[in-house]
Amino acid sequence: MASTASMASTASMTSMATITQGGSITIEKTKYECAQVPKRWQREDVLRKTGLTVGKVDLYYSRGVRNDGSLVPPIRQTASIFKQPVTVYKLQESKVKNDYKNGNQEKPKQLIWEKRLEGLRACDIDGFEFEAMELPKGLKPVGPNVTEDTIIQSVATALHVSSQPVTGQTSTKTLLEKNPGVFLDPKQPLVHAVNISDDDIKRQEERVALARKKLQDALKM
């Protein structure tokens, strides 16, 4: 922008220089910190001393470059004496999951915890051990070195503690044998999935009816 103007009384002179351009035109530059412009802006008056436009003053406003931390490339903080550049990748699809402290916190469950009870037997008041229970033949153990006693403890715990249906391990036999620590469901007993047929239900009803009859006869005596 070129115009003729007088210097403001509130301006403070910061620098002055006389420049000769092409040996024919002489100009004089003067920079000011003017109060009428925002901070970090400077006003520059360029006075033309020679040439056809002698006495004219050109006004220029400029601002210094401010240091921006985002424009400075990051440097790897290592013990190396040389500065090593770091490449920054921005992942727009990344999501941050908050750790919720409130509400029901489910405790982690140990796999195959029933093996800690192996070798322990319950006994009566006189110190005699109870007879071992026999499970149906359809219940097959799952896991490394799982015995029949371990299955009984696992099934009994699931029936008394778990609030969800007891189905057994639903993963395939191949996966369970390959890596039981990954594919075992800690909420289910250590048995393969059991399919109950109508014949099984009928036989169980007959056993219940027989047990009730024996109890009724015992009460009459």
From TrEMBL:
SUPFAM superfamilies on file: DNA-binding domain (SSF54171)
GO cellular component, one term: nucleus
Occurrences of domain Methyl-CpG binding protein 2/3 C-terminal (ranges): 127-219
Source domain of life: Eukaryota
Pfam families with a match to the protein in the record: MBD_C, MBDa
A Gene Ontology BP annotation from the UniProt entry: negative regulation of transcription by RNA polymerase II
Segments forming domain Methyl-CpG-binding: 61-122
GO molecular function terms listed in the Swiss-Prot or TrEMBL record: methyl-CpG binding
Protein name: Methyl-CpG-binding domain protein 2
